[in-house]
Design goal:
- The chain has one domain.
- The chain is mainly beta and 86 residues long.
- The chain has a six-stranded antiparallel barrel.
- The radius of gyration is 12 Å and the shape is globular.
- It has one helix and six strands.
């Protein structure tokens, strides 16, 4: 799977990756990472929730993440990125 970094909550380490045809994947950075809007990320198809290593193709580096959610619609991004209260 591939996704483009669409939104970042740096305070919480949360990132929304826009996927083609699959909504957004929400990840939490497990370690400090050089992630910027527009970076292209890749992960293995069928990867579920939990701890994984995603590749930042733009930077040529790997980053440990915790996948929080898949198939998230755009209107749910503020809540998923913990930018607003439930």
């Amino acid at each position: 799977m591939r996704g483009i970094d669409h939104s970042i909550n740096r305070r919480r380490g949360m990132v929304a990756l826009q996927t083609e045809g699959y909504g957004f994947t929400i990840i939490e950075l497990v370690e400090p990472a050089d992630i910027e809007l527009g970076d292209e990320m890749r992960w293995e198809p069928g990867t579920g929730l939990g701890g994984h290593v995603y590749a930042n193709l733009t930077k040529g580096k790997s980053v440990r993440v915790f996948a929080q959610n898949h198939w998230v619609p755009k209107e749910q991004l503020p809540q998923q990125l913990l930018l607003q209260a439930n």
